[in-house]
Each structure stands twice: as structure tokens, then as C-alpha cells.
Amino acid sequence: MVTLDGKTLAKKIRLSIKEEVKELKEKGIIPGLAFILVGDNPASQVYVNMKTKACEEVGIYSINHRMPKEINEKELVDVIKMLNDNPMVHGILVQLPLPEHIEEEKIIEAIDYRKDIDGFHPYNMGRLARGNPLFSSCTPLGIMKLLEEYSIETKGKDVVMVGAGNITGKPMALMLTNAGATVQICHIYTQHLKEKTKTADILITAVGKPDLIKEDMVKEGAVVIDVGISRVEGKVVGDVDFEKVSHKASYITPVPGGVGPMTIAMLLYNTLQSVKLKEQ
Questions:
Q1: pLDDT, position 171
Q2: Do 88 and 168 belong to one domain?
Q3: At what angle do helices 138-149 and 6-26 cross, to 10 degrees?
Q4: Which residues pair with 183 in a beta bridge?
Q5: Residue 265 lies in a domain
Q6: Residue 101 maps to which CATH number?
Q7: Domain annotation covers residue 150
Q8: What pLDDT score does 240 carry?
């Protein structure tokens, strides 16, 4: 069993990005990323702080717009339009989830697709579906980079994706399909989950339910990617029973230290791609 070390790979990618940012600054180009945080969700605050720190580390200029949870849709869209028009901003990230009174899709669609470094805009999702992405969702993109780093073949492999969310599940399925895999998506209404997961050469889970994936649900020698994040008795855990499943898997990601660091690295990577797109 080999542990897929996302932390080390993310560090390597960030160092490379730092060098590229330095070269851009020497040409008078300063990459900029804007964060919008609505409300006071503690987890969201932690994520935005982590992303801001990552920007500082590689030299990307960051702007933080922290909005009260009472803000209405029009006011939030107006802030996004302002950032769309700001030439100093190459990427815009609206931290999800948003308060219930704000329609998430309307906010995502308000972002200029050329600054949608999360890859959530319908334009970017559509291009991904056609196999010609402009920006790809950061978590699935990080997983693809991780598979590539460890020379894990996807072409011709059977993949089971547990979780059909717009952030990970759906774009992950599209990326792997584009890479030649045969992908089956499982979700809350899927019956006989175990029968399906046991067929997977590559099993990916992004649900947020501790110990959802147990040893008897995994094929011998499978590659297991755990995107799930939960807290159990103060400890961060994933969807996979790591200790037991690791004895059957050929490769497996730990939680934390697997997919998480790659997600943030890809956010920086996409911001850099946005700069290059603008300068073409």
C-alpha cells in the first residue's frame, strides 16, 4: 500500500507557482485573487484564511470582501460585477455555502467565467463536459494531478464516484471520463452501494460521512481517494475507514494530508492560468 501524499505534492506545485509569480512580477504583472465571504460560518472563515495565507506564500495579491449574512442578492452581485471590472483581479472566489436567502446559482453565474477560478460557472462546466476546459474545479483537478504524480493509469479503468455534488462528484466524473475511464456515479438514492464500490479499480468518495467506506466495500488492490471531511471527537476524519481499508488498497489518500492541500494548490494554479489567459 502506498499513501498518496498530497501535502508534499502541493508544496512542490506551490514552489513552482511562486517562481512563475516572481517572473510575472518582474514583467510588471501582479496576479490578484479576490475572496468573498458572506456571513460568519466558522468553517468558511477557516478556509478563506487558509487560502489567503496560501496566496501570500506564493506572492499572489489577495483581496478579502467580508459581507454580513443579511446582504441581499443584488448587493452581492454588485460586488461581483465590481470585481469583474477590476483589471487587478484575475480570479474571484465566492466561499460556499451561502446564506439560505441567496440563490447560489445566480451568484456563480454573475462571476465572469474568465475569472471563475473555482470552475463552477456553467460556461466552464460545459467546456469541461466537452473535454476542453478553461478552468476545472479545484478538488477534482487536484486529484487528477495526484494520480498523474504517482503514475496511476485511468484509461480503461472502472471508477466509482461516491457523491454527485457540483463541487467534486460531477466534475470528477467528467474529468475521468475525458481521461478514458468508465465512471459510475453513486449518490444518496443509490441502492446496493457495496455491490458497486467493490467493482472499482479507482474508488473516490466525497460525502462527509465518517467510515462510510469499509474494508468489505473495496476491491483488493483498488486505488482509494477520500475527499470527505468530518470531525469526530475533535479529530478530522474522512469517509473511509483508513486503518482497515489501507490493508486492501494499492494506493490511498490520508485525511488530512491527501486531497485537501491539493485543492488549495489548484486554486493558485487556476489563478495563474487566468493571468496567462489575459496576457495572451
A1: 98
A2: no
A3: 110
A4: 159
A5: no
A6: 3.40.50.10860
A7: yes
A8: 98
Shared-domain flag, residues 142 and 74 = no
Please identify every residue annotated as catalytic.
Answer: 51, 95, 118
Q: Are residues 163 and 102 in the same domain?
A: no
pLDDT of the residue at 128: 97
Whether 184 maps to a domain, the answer reads yes
Q: Which domain holds residue 82?
A: 28-114
- For residues 90 and 181, membership in a common domain is answered with no
* pLDDT averaged per 10 residues in sequence order, the chain, 280 residues: 97 98 96 96 92 97 96 97 97 96 97 97 97 96 98 98 97 98 97 97 97 97 97 92 96 96 97 89
The amino acid present at 256, given as its one-letter code, is P
CATH code of 209's domain: 3.40.50.720
- pLDDT at position 104 is 96
pLDDT at 279: 75
Cα 92 from chain centre:
15
Predicted pLDDT at 234: 86
Q: Burial code of 19-45, b = ≥16 C-beta within 10 A, e = fewer?
A: ebbeebeeeeeebbbbbbbbbebeebe
The domain total for the chain is 2
What's the pLDDT score for residue 126? 97
